[in-house]
Amino acid sequence: MEHGDVNVVYSVEHQLPLVMYIGQYFFFTGLSAGSFVISVIATLLGRKEFKPVGKITALLAPALLIIAPLNLILDLEQPLRFWHLFLYYNWASPITYGSFLLTAYPVMGIIYAVMVYTNRQKAAKILGVMGIPLAVSVHGYTGFILALAKARALWNTAAMPTIFLVSAMVSGIGLVVIVAAVRWKWFDKEADEEQKATDKKVILQLSQIMAYVIMLDLFLILSDILVLLTAHADAFEAGMLLLTGNFAFLFVGVEIILGSFIPMLLVLGPKSRKSLTAAVIASILVNIGVYAMRFVMVIGGQTTPLS
Amino acid sequence: MRNITRRDFLKLGAASTAVLAIETQFGPIASAAERLIEGGRSVNRTSGLPRSFLPSTCTQCPAGCGNMGYIEESRVVKIGGNTMHLSNQGSLCARGQAGINALYDPDRLLKPMRRNGLRGKNNWEMISWEEAYGEVAKILAAAKANPNDFVFMTDDLDQDAVGRRFTYAYGSPNALGGTGFYDANKLVATELTWGAAGDVPDVSKSKYILVFGANPLESNPQFVGLARRLINGIQQNQAKLVVFDVRLTNTKTRANESHYVNPGTYALVALSMANVIMQEGLYDRGFIEQWTNVSPAQLTQHLAQYTPERAEAETGVSALVIRRIATEFANTHPATTISDAMLSNFANGVQNERAVMLLNIITGNIDVKGGLCLPRKYDLAEPAPVPPVPAPSVLTNPPNLPLASHGSIEKALQQIKEGKQRVSVLMTHGVNPAYSSADGGLVEDMLRDEKMIPYHIAVTPFMNETALMADIILPETTFLEDWEVEVRPSPELVPYVSLRQAVVPPMESTASFFDIAAKLANLVMGGMEQYFAFKTVNDYLKARIANIPGLAQAGGLEYLRQHGVWYDPKTRPNYGAFMAGGFRTPSGRIEVFSPRLAEKNFSALPSYEPIAAFREIKDDEMVLTIFDTALQTDAKTANCMWLDEIQHDNPIWINSVTAARLGILHGDPIKLLRKEKSGVAKERSIISTAFVTEGIHEKVVAMANGVGHTAFGHIAEGEKMTLDEIEVPALRDANVTLVWWGHKDGIGVNAKQIVPIAPEPIGGGQAWGDMVVTIAKV
Amino acid sequence: MPEKKRYAMVIDIRRCIACHACTVACKAEMAVPLEVNATWLKIVEKGAFPDTRRFWLPRLCNNCTDAICARNCPTKATYKREDGIVMVDQHRCIGCKYCIASCPYDVRYINPLKNIVQKCYFCSHRVDAGLVPACVETCPTRAMVFGDKNDSKSEVAQLLASNATVVIKKEMQTDPQVFYISADETAMSNIEEEINYYTEGSLAKFRF
Ligand SMILES: Nc1nc2c(c(=O)[nH]1)N[C@H]1C(S)=C(S)[C@@H](COP(=O)(O)OP(=O)(O)OC[C@H]3O[C@@H](n4cnc5c(=O)[nH]c(N)nc54)[C@H](O)[C@@H]3O)O[C@H]1N2
Ligand SMILES: Nc1nc2c(c(=O)[nH]1)N[C@H]1C(S)=C(S)[C@@H](COP(=O)(O)OP(=O)(O)OC[C@H]3O[C@@H](n4cnc5c(=O)[nH]c(N)nc54)[C@H](O)[C@@H]3O)O[C@H]1N2
Ligand code: SF4
Ligand code: SF4
Ligand code: SF4
Ligand code: SF4
Ligand code: SF4
Ligand SMILES: [Mo]
Question: For residue A36, which of A158, A145, A165 has the smallest C-alpha distance?
Fold first, then answer.
């Protein structure tokens, strides 16, 4: 202790209410929402070369959304009472919007996937367009969950839902790139040379789109941090927690450098931009970065003492 | 100052308190009350129905607060305060409420046990009560040929009348009480000076309060009662509170003014203030002349040597401050001092206490409203037939300690060790010298030595450090299953009697100490059975309270069983009571000049003798202060989980500047090594972590008391348990699975073990404060 | 017509001696398990030797008028009574812990034995029976005062009217109903817990 400092003589430590299940849940809904949006874009554009991507993502979206809420239920102290969410809803609570969205969205997603696979283009388009606001809400609301817990300075910003959405897009595209690349390499036996080349181009294009979304994501995160650093004392603490504090390694090292800058360089770099391997590596890194971001937000946000 | 009146009834005094208490506590609870009831009731959390209760007395510390055991399905579910009790008026401190943890301690001893293998190996054989009684009675009967060799040790002899009776009935004088552990010096000092043991500062009505070596807002023999009145004094009565201590305490925090003082120099601070008061003519001439055995001139002359300048040099308190406080103290009426065990727990302890008393004496603040008052308490009767007190032994009247009228348990231990007293049988009851005594290690060695202590009977509810060294254990009830009547000095200055009543029946096959003593007496025989011929404990208790005026008319024991406490509702504090018959000293006056001290060649006038050990203190040497906290009382509260959860550690407080000089950082492990007087063999040291603070004197290191146990079981040692490990269903509390405060080195350190046994030369009580230690990084 | 009841607590720090009796009273009254607390003390030490002082603050749920915990609870397990006391319905709570994350005061906890979220309810069961809360009853120095602040004759109302009082984190706009007289700003702020003199070891649960 420095001479004359404040010394805490006694206090108690508190439980950390939300643990990584919640982060994981955010991660999986993000992936799901991201892939749904990509799928719908592919369907809407209607071009032949986008078809495989559209199909994969149509499947991924509901599949991931079945894993996601499992995390939520596992996190409940009373998992067997999860149905209380529907029986005793509270419209003032973002979790209540979430519970209904989380039910509506996978149903919609499954029907949409059926349409896509049975080649009912028109129905797929209509459902897809209707589904986008749902997908956006499903993931956006997770941002609201944090933002509306106003006790925590790191969470309580208007940018939070948008940051969650944009990073969901990033990780969603990343996942699509990975799955599409795997399919391209090992499972797409029937396609001819030309088809293969177009498919590869589409995948590379997708990875480049990812880079631009990363830029948007970085812009949002950096503006969030800037505002945190210049706002009230608790917000400043929260900002510093990410920049120099206990979560600096995860935030700066993993989320920003490993999960954003390196992938951007990989997919935009003059040489590597043509390599599917680079795109896949970039996508993996992006997902690691986004997972880290969920960790930093959920856990980090709770570590600044409240009392 | 707050603008509106708090709890009006507190101010109205004793009688109205009683009226209100009876209304609320013993009448129906008003539903949808206009005004919520302050205390003395409890309801079930789910049904909302009132819980039944029995009032009793807390023994978690010497304050003896009135408590209530709330009962559901013959279990105590909560302990609350008794609003009728004069001392605590419905409140209980943390320790009092946590008494329930001791009652349902998962490691409680429930069956008599006989030692297997070596002493201290914690290896026991369960035996029946019949066998246990048989064995103990046989040994006691055999040893009765030399009754003097029977030694009985207890926590507080004044409160253990049964133990004392048992010892005398057996024919031994050697009933040793823990008062020798602590305030023996204070008791001796006050008795020598004004003929009564102890004092009661009337703080709620005072205007100026000086605190020396006490910490009434964290630990005090009257804790709840005094803390409330002190806060009332400074908040409602706007008294000024001035505190002298070697470290930052909660009392200092509430003070208007506080000062760090060099350790062991209280007397000089007080005497230099007295000097100023005399020099400036601010003293109460009338009082000194009429009620003391010295003249102002004589005192002025004696005190002249204690100039504020000399005090500044030796105590570290500036002469300016001393002059100012002395003047304020003398000019503000009424004023009082608060002093406690620690003030007199030094080699110069008795004189410290007398010096502080002198401030009250020369300003005429003796037994006045708001001043330092004589203790008021009822006398309990010793039921007939009264066992004659056997002739004193070296233990009860140690040579070289002619004035130590309250015994000296430390000295006694030393004498046994040196072979000056033979021991045939040692019985320990509610006392834990292996942990609480100075040189605990030495005591442990003694207890381990089967030649020195051939047979050790421990009567105890818990496997404490001392019981671990026993040959046979008689499992006793806790204070919540036990019976006794208690009288303590009343902070309200109206005497009262309080009943410790069993709020639940004895757990399993445990037995109360009264029953154990009676049973043994009737088995040992040889005449001692006649003193335990009571049919029930009720007969004994009735006889104990027989002499209390007015109680019989009020309903006697029945009244106490219903209300827990009794006092005469018509009585008001009779300030100045001494005026009727004088003080109970040989001269009838306050003996500022003590002929008894003079006769034994001690300074007869209050004086200051510097502590030798502090004179040449080196750079890496520090004075060790061991202090009490609001959460533990020595070893009494060791197994209370709610307390241990809050306090389970005692890092070494060290001043930040000193720490920097010694290169010690916060949290560093450091070692305190006892500085040996030449020739003493064993090195004794302890290791704990540094708590670097701005709140302690540069030359003092301090550690809290009450932790660092090596016995007692899971709670005290911070170990989790599973419910299956607990045999008795009544003790299965799922909380034991959550115990989280243990770490591999146990919880905290028992600092007392490095303090050498050192009785104060006049009072005989241990001089805890003289400890010089060498400090080193580990 | 008399206003509705609105229960509130005033803690006069000038009378508080940091004795932890309130903490233990609550453990006993509410069967609060080890590891967690519905009320506790925070004690800090400030200033350089010899001008050092301690400051402390008993902490508990503020039973806020605009309770974020209640607003955010998805099942309405957390709800507000007529008299302002914020309750948790033990049978309805699903243990999502969102209320804990939302509360700006860190006063809620998961009961490790029952897996339910709990906090201080101003001892509603005692209040309903006409008794003051357990912590208030036991407080040795009467530092805690409890009552209906809409009743101008109550001691709470009078204390509030005649003293400067503060609440913790007013800026959170929850309208806390635990008021402090003479509380220290450092003790009220969320300073980093550098050291912990009585407790050692971490109680925080990082469950991954
Ligand atoms: N809450 C609580 N109450 C208790 C107890 C308890 O453990 N806790 N124990 C009970 C018992 S058995 C007893 S005997 C009494 C003890 O009551 P006290 O004797 O009053 O308690 P201590 O904490 O031993 O000492 C009081 C203060 O003296 C200070 N002190 C020590 N050395 C010096 C010195 O050289 N100079 C100055 N100026 N100050 C010094 C200490 O820092 C401490 O703050 O309390 C009884 N009541
Ligand atoms: N350095 C230093 N040493 C000190 C002190 C100090 O200030 N500094 N303080 C000294 C003082 S003031 C004192 S009073 C002594 C105290 O020393 P002791 O008189 O030995 O008292 P405790 O250590 O509290 O041990 C009492 C024992 O009673 C048992 N017990 C607990 N509850 C019950 C119950 O309900 N019924 C029965 N029958 N037994 C029970 C426990 O097992 C405990 O071991 O310590 C002294 N030691
Ligand atoms: S001060 Fe506390 S421990 Fe001591 S008797 Fe009173 S309630 Fe019991
Ligand atoms: S019980 Fe009262 S005095 Fe003790 S810490 Fe709590 S509020 Fe303060
Ligand atoms: S203090 Fe927290 S838990 Fe209590 S009512 Fe306010 S927001 Fe809710
Ligand atoms: S944990 Fe229980 S009380 Fe808290 S928000 Fe969830 S359902 Fe409501
Ligand atoms: S009011 Fe009751 S529940 Fe709240 S802190 Fe006090 S004792 Fe605990
Ligand atoms: Mo003591």
Answer: A165
B44-54: average pLDDT: 95
Name the neighbours of C, counting chains with at least 3 Cβ pairs within 8 A: A, B
Domains of chain A are 13-300 (1.20.1630.10)
pLDDT for C206 beyond 50: no
Distance to chain B for A1, nearest Cα, Å: 6
ipTM, two decimals: 0.93
Instruction: Say if CB B327 and CB B282 are below 8 A apart.
Output: yes
Q: Which residue of C has its CA nearest to B94?
A: C21
The residues in B 38-67 lying below 8 A from C, measured between CB atoms, are 38-39, 41-46, 48, 50
Q: What is the mean pLDDT of chain B?
A: 92
Q: What are phi and psi of C120, to 5 degrees?
A: -80, 130
CATH number, domain with residue C19? 3.30.70.20
Total domains in the fold of chain C:
1
Length of chain B measured in residues: 778
Q: Is the CB of C79 under 6 A from ligand 6?
A: no
- The strand pairing partners of B747, in sequence order, are none
Atom in ligand 7 nearest the alpha carbon of residue C136:
6
pLDDT (mean) for B549-553:
95
Q: Is C69 on the interface with A (CB under 8 A)?
A: no
pTM for the whole thing? 0.94
**Which residues have CB less than 5 Å away from ligand 8 (the ion)?**
B 182
**How many CB atoms neighbour CB B371 within 10 A?**
24
pLDDT of residue B17 exceeding 60, the answer is no
> What pLDDT band is residue B15 in, cutting at 50, 70 and 90?
very low
The CA–CA distances, whole Å, from A159 to A163, A254, B229, B678 equal 6, 21, 55, 74
Chains in contact with chain B (at least 3 beta-carbon pairs closer than 8 A): A, C
CA nearest neighbour of A132 among A28, A206, A36, A27: A36
Note whether A151 contacts C172, CB cutoff 8 Å.
yes
Nearest C-alpha in C relative to B82: C138
DSSP state of A275: -
The response to whether residue C94 sits with its C-beta less than 6 Å from ligand 6 reads: yes
Contact B247, B657 (CB under 8 A): no
C168 lies in which domain range? 7-189
Segment of A90-104, A260-274, B174-188, B473-487 carrying the highest mean pLDDT: B473-487
pLDDT band of residue B746 (cuts 50, 70, 90) is low
